[in-house]
Amino acid sequence: MDVRIQKAQAHHVAPLVDLFLLVERQHEAYWPLRWQLRPDISNRYNGWVAGNLGKSDWLFAVALDETRVVGGVAAGIIQEIPIYTCDRYAFIHDVAVATDSRRLGVATKLVLFVRQWALDAGINQLRLFAAEPNAPARELFSRLGFRTTYHEMVLPTA
Ligand SMILES: CC(C)(COP(=O)(O)OP(=O)(O)OC[C@H]1O[C@@H](n2cnc3c(N)ncnc32)[C@H](O)[C@@H]1OP(=O)(O)O)[C@@H](O)C(=O)NCCC(=O)NCCS
Q1: Fewer beta carbons within 10 angstroms: which end of the chain, N or C?
Q2: pLDDT at position 158, please?
Q3: 37 with 25: CB under 8 angstroms?
């Protein structure tokens, strides 16, 4: 499929957030204790993306075919605590592809776009969290060369 990746513009925010909500709802279904969403998630997410669009420490990118947004990614640059030689890293918060556009390399292109953005910003590593039950995502990121470093563990206190 012929898709191009570019930085998101204001008119991309709503379709981009609709795609990110796919990921968020998928996570919520895994375990509400860990991922339950607020009822006004859509407004909150739209506000968060629109408020950070164009800031140099944030990247919101879209995959476009001739007619619509078929994928998107949100990434930011995070400051490490001052004990590691790595003081800043790029972090992918969300990546999602429309259901009818999957397995065509769209997510791969989006992640490589973020990687290049990080490299251009002088950042030497890209991190993300992939949910344990999300086998497709873990396979995608492994294929791209990501190495597992942590297993987040959550204990309900009640
Ligand atoms: C995970 C997701 C982003 C993959 O997007 P995509 O555009 O289909 O991924 P790509 O086409 O670039 O896939 C590249 C490789 O990743 C792996 N992969 C992707 N989807 C897979 C799946 N459903 N099952 C197994 N492997 C998969 C394959 O190795 C694939 O290569 P191949 O198609 O040659 O076998 C997409 O399924 C999605 O949006 N899922 C819902 C949201 C989500 O889970 N996002 C990640 C959360 S951080």
Answers
A1: C
A2: 95
A3: yes
Give the residue whose CA is nearest to atom 17 of ligand 1: 140
Of the candidates 31, 36, 49, which has an alpha carbon nearest to the alpha carbon of residue 94?
Answer: 49
Domain boundaries, the chain: 4-143
Most ligand 1 atoms within 8 A of CB, residue of 103, 115, 126, 139 to mutate: 103
- CATH fold of 4-143: Aminopeptidase (3.40.630)
Other C-beta atoms closer than 10 Å to the C-beta of 106 total 23
Which position has the higher pLDDT, 127 or 2? Answer: 127
Does any ligand 1 atom lie closer than 6 A to the CB of residue 108?
yes
* Calpha distance 92→76 (Å, rounded): 7
Instruction: Decide: 21 in ligand 1 pocket, CB within 6 A.
Output: no
Give tens-digit pLDDT for 50-94. Answer: 999 999 999 999 999 999 999 999 999 999 999 999 999 999 999
Q: Is the CB of 90 under 6 A from ligand 1?
A: no
Asked if pLDDT for residue 112 goes beyond 90, the answer is: yes
pLDDT of residue 152: 96
